[in-house]
């Protein structure tokens, strides 16, 4: 019976590229997120090959992007604007979010919420901004920007420097 490597030994065999962060703090955060994900995968599946780890990672990212796209779509629906057709899939081992057939790849880089939800909301917002500004602050009439604040993805009014609603709850009774 072959020896099963411990978690640390297994991770070393994977030779993981963390991608480009936006500084030392971001690189530490990304590494911590990835190590949590790898530990969860290792605990549930054991020491998988690098190829299987990469497949599992992309599938997990796609699932998160699908969930996050649905959250943002609820905000779009409540705003009364036309709802786009949103499709999420894998394109060359990256997440592709297609908005009415238009996309850039990769569409999202982040690996964990709330950052991944913020990035998904910003991506969808950017695609919709070709038509008009969405969403708008009900107080200032200016566009809102999705941001991670206090561990939550929120729609943030840049003009008034205040939160308007958590992403996914824009226009609900609790935020009006």
Explain what you see.
The chain is an alpha+beta fold and 176 residues long. The chain has 2 domains: 1-48, no CATH class; 62-175, no CATH class. It is 42% helix and 16% strand. The protein has a 3-stranded antiparallel β-sheet, covered by helices on one side. A hairpin with a 2-residue loop joins strand 1 and strand 2 (94-99). Helix 3 (50-79) packs across helix 4 (115-128). The longest helix has 30 residues, at 50-79. The protein is elongated, with a radius of gyration of 19 Å. The termini are far apart. The mean pLDDT is 90.
Task: Report the mean per-residue pLDDT as an integer.
Answer: 90
The major pleated sheet works out as: 3 strands, antiparallel
How would you sum up the global shape?
Answer: elongated
> Helical element count?
4
Q: Which spans have pLDDT < 50 for at least 5 consecutive residues?
A: none
* Number of beta-strand segments: 5
Helix/strand class: alpha+beta
Q: What's the SSE pattern? A: HHHEEHEEE
- Number of domains in the coordinates? 2
Distance between termini?
A: 62 Å
**What is the helical fraction, as a range of percent?**
40-55%
- Rg of Cα set: 19 Å
Task: Identify the notable features of this structure and list them briefly.
elongated; 2 domains; 5 strands; two-stranded antiparallel ribbon; 3-stranded antiparallel β-sheet; single chain; 4 helices; about 15% strand; alpha+beta; about 180 residues
């Amino acid at each position: 019976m072959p020896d099963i490597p411990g978690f640390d030994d297994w991770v070393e065999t994977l030779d993981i590229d963390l991608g480009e962060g936006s500084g030392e703090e971001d690189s530490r955060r990304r590494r911590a997120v990835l190590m949590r994900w790898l530990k969860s995968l290792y605990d549930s599946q054991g020491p998988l090959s690098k190829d299987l780890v990469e497949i599992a990672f992309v599938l997990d990212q796609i699932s998160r992007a699908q969930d996050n796209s649905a959250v943002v779509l609820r905000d779009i629906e409540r705003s009364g604007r036309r709802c786009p057709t949103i499709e999420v899939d894998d394109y060359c081992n990256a997440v592709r979010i297609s908005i009415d057939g238009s996309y850039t790849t990769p569409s999202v880089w982040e690996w964990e919420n709330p950052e991944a939800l913020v990035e998904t909301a910003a991506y969808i917002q950017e695609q919709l901004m070709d038509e008009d500004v969405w969403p708008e602050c009900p107080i200032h009439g200016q566009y809102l920007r999705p941001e991670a604040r206090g561990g939550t993805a929120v729609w943030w009014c840049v003009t008034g420097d205040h939160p308007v609603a958590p992403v996914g709850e824009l226009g609900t009774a609790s935020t009006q």
